[in-house]
Q: What sequence folds into this?
């Protein structure tokens, strides 16, 4: 309905006001990309079924030495692009937008389990359509997936290779932010 995907945009941010929180501790792997930026990145990788070829990242550092705001860009195969921002010092925001050659999809609160989700479809100059999605508990899905893997020897929906690829992309984003240069992954 939206044609060929051109761009995936996302955001996941909230205000973190808890001094001493583990997310603010660089020795414990703190930082906004590790906490919430991983979600729009993983969402895009899953949606496109591909890994980024090149990434660029910019970060604002907190007083504790972790990124408390991060902006990321990536180029995927076929000249499909991604942009996301994440952070601990911005208002609560969570969305994913998929922009294609004929329309776009906007998903509000895609990372919050149990919330009622609606998808806004815009095609050309037509009036936007709202697609209601049923409520479900994402955490229950995770537990059921783990139980199936353990009890029935079914491969998990998120493989170790997929998790490693997301970590590799995150590390490349941090390298880009540190060096001020784009980082090629392939």
A:
């Amino acid at each position: 309905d939206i044609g060929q995907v051109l761009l995936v945009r996302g955001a996941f941010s909230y205000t973190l006001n808890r001094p001493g929180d583990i997310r603010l501790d660089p020795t414990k792997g703190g930082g906004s990309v590790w906490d919430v930026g991983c979600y729009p990145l993983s969402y895009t990788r899953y949606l496109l079924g591909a890994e980024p070829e090149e990434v660029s990242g910019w970060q604002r550092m907190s007083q504790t030495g972790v990124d408390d705001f991060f902006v990321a860009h990536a180029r995927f195969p076929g000249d499909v692009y991604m942009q996301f921002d994440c952070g601990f010092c911005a208002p609560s925001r969570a969305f994913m937008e998929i922009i294609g050659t004929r329309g776009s999809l906007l998903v509000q609160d895609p990372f919050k389990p149990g919330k009622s989700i609606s998808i806004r479809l815009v095609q050309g100059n037509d009036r936007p359509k709202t697609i209601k999605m049923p409520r479900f508990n994402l955490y229950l899905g995770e537990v059921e997936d783990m139980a199936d893997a353990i009890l029935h020897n079914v491969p998990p929906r998120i493989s170790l290779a997929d998790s490693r690829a997301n970590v590799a992309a995150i590390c490349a984003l941090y390298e880009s932010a540190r060096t001020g240069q784009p980082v090629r992954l392939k």
Remarks:
- The longest strand covers residues 89-100.
- The chain is about 30% helix and 35% strand.
- The helical segments are 32-48, 138-152, 160-179.
